[in-house]
Each structure stands twice: as structure tokens, then as C-alpha cells.
């Protein structure tokens, strides 16, 4: 039985839909997929960041970030792998649940890792069900073009909201010949057709990675659903960054930051300085002092 009757208003629909929130108008509603569609209709923009733990999830949610992505990038940024390929569903689900239970307002999107959906629509549905039931996600994301339209359609029919990911798809880096911009020249038409096929299959949003700005703008113009860009110019409805890149946590000697990344802080230096000071004070006996002792 549904928890409310059809003529009752749910708490998360009782305020104006879709809002980033601010000090004067804090966000009180959960962002839903239809709020993102309304944003595109109104010419507004929204932000998405990755998150993998309770603290960043709560902070980003408080900041008004509309969508939190538990990306397969956890392979690189949590588990220490060089690529996103090794991470598994079992490794991601605890991270998804941590984020979902810590962010009361953002739309939570779980990323399908490599090997969790390619075999068949049935495999994709099974993975999606796990992310929604065990991880408490609100939607999932999968990489691939028109070839996966039937997979997206089956998942949507099963009640699983799907975000599509086209352009550079990191799980296919070996097939694509490495990290290369997609959609240049004549290849732009293919991306447009991919996006239209995925939208027709029921994807509520299309993410584009490492795509020329003009191509991304053409894709966005061809769709009624919102688009999200990462290295795809500013014509998309939304933008996404890996939070460790955005906040300057990922860095250091020999680490190259992607062209499309803007660092809004330098957390690596702040943490490094704090750790060094802590180490020095422990070694010299300054910590703990009387004020830290019982």
C-alpha cells in the first residue's frame, strides 16, 4: 500500500521544485529527475560532484550540489587503482549507501562499473536493482552509445532511472586508444545519434565527457532531456567534476590535472601541512598537551 493517498502531497513535493538553496532560502526538498528536466526547460544549470563517503556527501549536500555521483572513479580515488576498470559492484555498494544515507537533498546516482551490465539487459537490471535496494541510490549511470538503447529501455521499464554516458567512456579506454577527445569533425553526428537513441530509450539525462564544446552544444540542442558535461564546454544543463580534482586533493609531484578541471581549493597542501605539524608535535612531545589530557 502506498504511504500516502493520491490527493496527499508528499513532504518532498511540498516546496517549490528544484532549488540550489542558499543562506536565505535553504533547500528542503529532495532533488528528483523531473526537477532536472524543469531546469533545462527554464534555462537553468545544476551541479554534480562525485562523493564516496559520509562527510563529503553531507558537505556537498549542504552546499546545494544537486546531484552526487558515486562514480566508478572510486577505483582511482578510493581504492588506488590506475584506471576505473578493476572496481566491482560489491566494492561500490557500501560507498553508495554511505552517500545516500548522508545527503538528504541531493539526487544520488550510482555508476555501473565495467562488467556489470554489458552482457545483457537482464544483467543490467540485476545490477540496477542492487544499487537501488542495497545502495539506496535514486538512479544509475552507464557508459555507451546507441548499442545500449535496449538495455536502457529495459531498465527504465523495470523502474530504474538511467543516466547515459557518451563521448569519452573511461571503461573503454583500451578500445578507444587511451584518453582521447571524442566527437570531433564527422564523429559529432554519431554522438548526436547516440544521445537521441538513449533519450528515446528513456534515459533521463545524458552525460558527455571530453567532447568539443560545439559538439556538446549540438547534442544538447538535439535533446529534450538535460545534459551534463565534463570537459564538454558550458552549453550543457549541468556540470560534473571528481571532487578530489575540484578541491585539489589529487595532485603532487608528477600528477597531471586534466585541462577541464578547475581547482577551487588546495586541500592536498592543507592536509599535508596539518599532517607534518602533527608529526612534528608528536615527535617533539608537544602533543598531547595538558589541554588534551584527562
Automatic annotation (TrEMBL):
Belongs to the PanB family. Its main location: cytoplasm. This is 3-methyl-2-oxobutanoate hydroxymethyltransferase. Mg(2+) binds at residues 72, 111, 143. It is an enzyme of class 2 (transferase). Its cofactor is Mg(2+). One of its GO terms (cellular component) is cytoplasm. Binds 1 Mg(2+) ion per subunit. Homodecamer; pentamer of dimers. It comes from Sinomonas puerhi. The gene is panB.
Amino acid at each position: 500500500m502506498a504511504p500516502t493517498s493520491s490527493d496527499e502531497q508528499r513532504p518532498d513535493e511540498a516546496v517549490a521544485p528544484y532549488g540550489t538553496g542558499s543562506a536565505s532560502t535553504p533547500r528542503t526538498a529532495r532533488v528528483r529527475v523531473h526537477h532536472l528536466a524543469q531546469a533545462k526547460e527554464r534555462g537553468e544549470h545544476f551541479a554534480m560532484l562525485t562523493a564516496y563517503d559520509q562527510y563529503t556527501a553531507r558537505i556537498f549536500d549542504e552546499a546545494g550540489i544537486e546531484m552526487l555521483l558515486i562514480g566508478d572513479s572510486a577505483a582511482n580515488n578510493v581504492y588506488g587503482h590506475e584506471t576505473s576498470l578493476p572496481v566491482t559492484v560489491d566494492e561500490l555498494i557500501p560507498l553508495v549507501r554511505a552517500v545516500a544515507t548522508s545527503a538528504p537533498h541531493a539526487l544520488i546516482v550510482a555508476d555501473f562499473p565495467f562488467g556489470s551490465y554489458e552482457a545483457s539487459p537482464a544483467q543490467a537490471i540485476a545490477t540496477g536493482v542492487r544499487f537501488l535496494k542495497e545502495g539506496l541510490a535514486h538512479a544509475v549511470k552507464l557508459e555507451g552509445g546507441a548499442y545500449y538503447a535496449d538495455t536502457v529501455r529495459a531498465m527504465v521499464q523495470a523502474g530504474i532511472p538511467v543516466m547515459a554516458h557518451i563521448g569519452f567512456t573511461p571503461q573503454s579506454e583500451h578500445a578507444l586508444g587511451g584518453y582521447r577527445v571524442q566527437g570531433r569533425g564527422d564523429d559529432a553526428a554519431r554522438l548526436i545519434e547516440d544521445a537521441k537513441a538513449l533519450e528515446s530509450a528513456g534515459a533521463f539525462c545524458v552525460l558527455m565527457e571530453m567532447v568539443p564544446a560545439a559538439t556538446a552544444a549540438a547534442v544538447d540542442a538535439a535533446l529534450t532531456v538535460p545534459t551534463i558535461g565534463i570537459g564538454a564546454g558550458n552549453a550543457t544543463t549541468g556540470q560534473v567534476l571528481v571532487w578530489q580534482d575540484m578541491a585539489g586533493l589529487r595532485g603532487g609531484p608528477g600528477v597531471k590535472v586534466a585541462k577541464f578541471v578547475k581547482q577551487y581549493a588546495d586541500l592536498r597542501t592543507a592536509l599535508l601541512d596539518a599532517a607534518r605539524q602533527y608529526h612534528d608535535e608528536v615527535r617533539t612531545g608537544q602533543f598531547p598537551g595538558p589541554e588534551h589530557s584527562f
